[in-house]
Amino acid sequence: MHSHLIPGIDDGSKTMEESLTLIRELSDLGLSKLITTPHVMSEYYRNTPETIQMGLEDLRRAVKKEGLDIEIEAAAEYYMDEIFLEKVKSGEKLLSFGDNYVLVETGFINKPQMLLESFFQMEMAGYKPVFAHPERYQYLIADKKLQEEILERNILLQVNMLSLTGFYSKHVKDFAESLIDTGNVRFLGSDCHNQRYVDMLKTLSATRYYSKIKESSWLNTQL
């Protein structure tokens, strides 16, 4: 779960040909199912359930024509801002996956003032928020109190596997490992956008946490 493989609707794959190449390589790595999650951001990627579903159907047809044996579903990666919070409060239906999970993200530098409120409102609406790549948020790395608040509330965390390879930076890698050690990370994701991500994913088996993530239990297996 967590990838950007529907072509042309966000900052992920640009063409159907690129999507098919990435999906073929992910399948070769042993994945049997993908839940791709296009960005929904009010100022940049104004995707809707309709545009995402149309893109998913086109992608499924192309995958079938290509003869790739892999299941593909779609949800979304929602950017948590004031507009997102209003969507939740107004009862607008969100794209979820699995057991009513909803993938959410924030900006990487500054903490959104409505962060904890958004989690609360999502839970009140019956959703289970999944916090995408918390290891990449600079404000969270620097704020021990906020880390404790999120862990105490048992917010489900999703770490990018590439973070464990040092793909983003060493301090992101270190924080990803420390989050996994807390036991609160329940999902792993590729966050695959393009070929660079797949190429780096192939190096995961050489990382020191590879055996640990293989031996751990992840909610991915229940999706």
List the helices and strands and how they pair.
Layout: H1 16-28, E1 33-36, E2 39-40, H2 49-66, E3 71-74, E4 77-79, H3 82-89, E5 101-105, H4 115-124, E6 128-132, H5 138-142, H6 144-152, E7 156-160, H7 170-182, E8 185-189, H8 195-201, H9 210-215
Outline the structure in words.
The chain is an alpha/beta fold. It has one domain (16-217): Metal-dependent hydrolases (TIM Barrel, Alpha-Beta Barrel). The chain is built from 9 helices and 8 strands. The protein has helices at 16-28, 49-66, 82-89, 115-124, 138-142, 144-152, 170-182, 195-201, 210-215; strands spanning 33-36, 39-40, 71-74, 77-79, 101-105, 128-132, 156-160, 185-189. The strands form 2 sheets. It has a 6-stranded parallel beta sheet. Helix 3 (82-89) packs parallel to helix 4 (115-124). This is protein-tyrosine-phosphatase. It comes from Algoriphagus formosus. InterPro entries: Caps_polysacc_synth_CpsB/CapC, Pol/histidinol_Pase-like. One of its GO terms (molecular function) is manganese ion binding. Its EC number is 3.1.3.48.
